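Researcher: Go.
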Amino acid sequence: MKKWMQIRFFLCVAILFGVVFSLQNVSAQENRTVKVGLFELGQFCYLDDNGNPRGYAIDYMNEIKKRANWNIEYVPVEDWNAGMEMIESGKIDLLAPAQMTAERVDQYRFSAYSMGSECGAIFVLDQIHGDIAFEEYDKMEDLTFGIGKGSIFEADYRQLCQKLGMEENLVSYDTTYKMLQALEDGEIDGAIADVMFSTKEYKTLERFSMKPVYYIGNLEDNIIMDELDDAMAKLYASDTNFQTNLLNEYFGLFSNNELTYEEQQFVEECPVIKVGYEQNKLPLSYTDENGEFAGITRDIFDEISRNSGLTFEYLELPAGTVTYEYLVEHGISVLANVENNDVNLNLQTMKLSETYLETE
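Model: Structure:
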C-alpha cells in the first residue's frame, strides 16, 4: 500500500511540475518582446505629428500581436538595406515589406503568408510634369529618372524599357531617400521607386511588377517566425478580407482608375454610346416614374461614366426577342443584363464584358 502511495505521489508531483513548467512557457510567450524594424515608407509606415508610428504596417502588426501574445518594440531603421543588416545581426526580429527572391531566401526566413502587395512605379512631380498622361511613353522618353542603389525594381524597369524600346535615362543614388530629395531639388525629372512612396505631390506615370510582400526574420530564428506564421494563419482564417480592406484604406492608388494616354485619346474621340436595357427586370433594370433607366445596372454604368468620362444614352428594348438587325438599326452598341453562358459566349456578332453581378 505504501509503495502504491509513493508511486501515486510521484505521478502527482510530476504532473504538477509539468503544469508549472507549461505555465512558465505560456507566461514567457505572453511577455515576449519582438523588435520590428521601422522606416518611413509612405502610407505603409510613417510617424504622426506626435512621433507615433502609423500606417498599414502598424495596423497589420496590431492584429498580429494580439494573436501571438507579443509586445512590440519598434526600432528605427535608416533604410531598407540597413534593416536587412539589422536582421542578420539580431538587432531587430522582423522587417517588412520584403519581396521574395532566390538570393533573399538563402539569407532570411520569410513568413509563410504574404502581408500585402507592392509594385514599382515611375513618379514625377505633378506640379512640373502633371501634363504627362499615364503610360504616355513618348514624353517619358525625354525624362531622366533616379533610382536607389540596390533597388529591387531596377531590373524590372530595365526590362520594361527594353520591351517598349525606350531609353532608360537612369541615374543611381545611394538611397531611395536621397533620390527622392534629388527629385524635389530638380536634379532629375522622375523617380523609380516602390509605389508605397507615392504622395499627393507625385503623379504616377507607370506601375509595373506587382508582387506579394512578406515579413522577413533571421534565418535561424524559428521561434518568432513560427509564432508569426501561426498568428497570420489565425488572422486570415478569422477575416478573409482583412488584407484587401487594409490595402484599400491606405493604398487606394493600387486600384485607381487613371486612364492611359491611349485610353484618354479614345474617350475624347468616342461618340455617345447607346445602351439597350430590358424593362421590368427588377432590381437590375427598369424604367422609373420619370421615364429614366434605373436599377443596379444603371448605377454601374454611372460609375463607369464617372471614372472614364464615357457618355451613355439608354434605350428601352421592346418586349420579346430582340434581333441583331434591330440593334444595328437603332445604333445600339451595348446590351445590358446579358447572361454569361455558353450560348452567349459563342456569339459571333457580340462580345461579353467581364461579369459584374453573380447570383445563385
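Model: The chain is about 40% helix and 20% strand.
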